[in-house]
Amino acid sequence: MRYESVRAADIVVIRGGGDIATGVIQKFYRSGIRLLVLETEKPTAIRRSVALCEAVYDGVATVEDVSCARVTSLSELDKCYERKLVPILIDPHGESIPRLNPAAVVDAILAKRNTGTHKDMAPVTIGLGPGFYAGDDVHAVIETMRGHDLGRLILSGCAQPNTGVPGEVGGKGAERVIHAPVAGEMRHVHAIGDVLDAGEVICEISGEAVTAPLSGVLRGLLRAGLQAPAGMKIADMDPRLDVDWRTISDKARCIGGATLEAYFYLQSNRRY
Prior knowledge:
18% of the residues lie in helices and 26% in strands. By secondary structure, it is an alpha/beta fold. Helix 1 (19-30) packs across helix 5.
């Protein structure tokens, strides 16, 4: 059954609610655009303090001036909009998109590959990062690699390929990212925002201690209770002691602004 609200054609669907997607959500929300966020049943965001997908677990999540509320059906969207909340729906495969008939679809999953987004989903489709080809899979691609081209709007072609090497933060790159040494359930010893010395225990997985590789602020940590396969990214350290881990990052803001630009650019090109 199709969503019957007369405002459906004005809604933008954001696939994904992680920390980068949250930067996108905030830009659209502040521009007065109604949104629907689609997520998996168990999101695995690391920077959970700035990821609206936490609403899947907690019912409601707030990052800066944006609050997101979990819904179970499209019939609940209007109530969210009346309360100035961004609705988030568990729908990893985008099955609700044809029923919604939205103005645009933004793939902000950042899976480094296309997990199913295509141009027929909406009049405007935008893919973030590698895995999409503008003009084929989607109408536009946003560059997500740190550097000179971060946030570049690509109308033909694709973003830079994934290098597998994290961008530098405070002079630290790959060494600031922590991966699961074994498979198992996450148990926290420290919390996001804690200041740690190198070698301190961050968490445990299947009884094995995971330690901080450097001194700094624990900026990201996989949610406790989740099962982590061996090798999965589970935590993120920031050597800058003055980092504000409660607010959206510079990278997410840049990508968010670029995605909003792409939306309006493609909308205007459709009109003229």
